[in-house]
Amino acid sequence: MRVLIADDHPLYREAAALQIRRLYREAHVQEVASLAELRAATDHSAAFDLILVDYYMPGMSADALAGLVKDFPATPLAVISGMVGNADIVAAVRAGVCGYIPKTSTSEYFARALQLLLAGGTSIPTEVLMDQTASHKMPSWLAKMSAREKEVLHGVAMGQSNKEIGRALGLAEVTIKLHLRNVFRKMAVKSRSEAAVKAVRAGLG
Predict the structure, then answer these.
(1) How many angstroms separate the Cα of 164 from the Cα of each of 25, 133, 154?
(2) Cα–Cα nearest to 8, from 151, 162, 200, 118
(3) pTM over the 0.85 mark
(4) What pLDDT, in 10s, does the model give residues 63-102?
């Protein structure tokens, strides 16, 4: 069995890989940290039996997920994210992903989700499909952001510098500064640390 984990947060990625190997001793788990690396891995290797994708890693978006679903129709693809019930994840579900696994889920939940996905089923918490007027809807400031601005903010939440964010996204440092100016304005914050705290609370960390 071959599993691909795509997540730019190394601690979560390694923990997920370890748990998969404990559950399925024959599993070969490959780890990547961006959409570009995911594409490279799927282009130059045998088919995977399951792909787990972090929604907020560099290059990822609802459109990118839809592209992956289209390109790998026989492979179960699930989103892993810290945010439940936001419009981006709902869009991803509508794009055809088979599952959504919260990063806050228990080991038992994770194991059950893998079992369902590998059996050809789906694993999507009901919270994700809740109406957007419910209490789990994303913050108004997040709804105003573009996909690129969310990627930049995710980098801030991860503690990355502007140079590191730019390198990950393939953008100039001055462009990152311009995006952050818009991000701070939409979030109504005055500092990088304040933005990071709000982003983590919203599940972007």
Answers:
(1) 36, 36, 12
(2) 151
(3) no
(4) 888 899 889 988 999 999 876 556 666 677 777 888 888 8
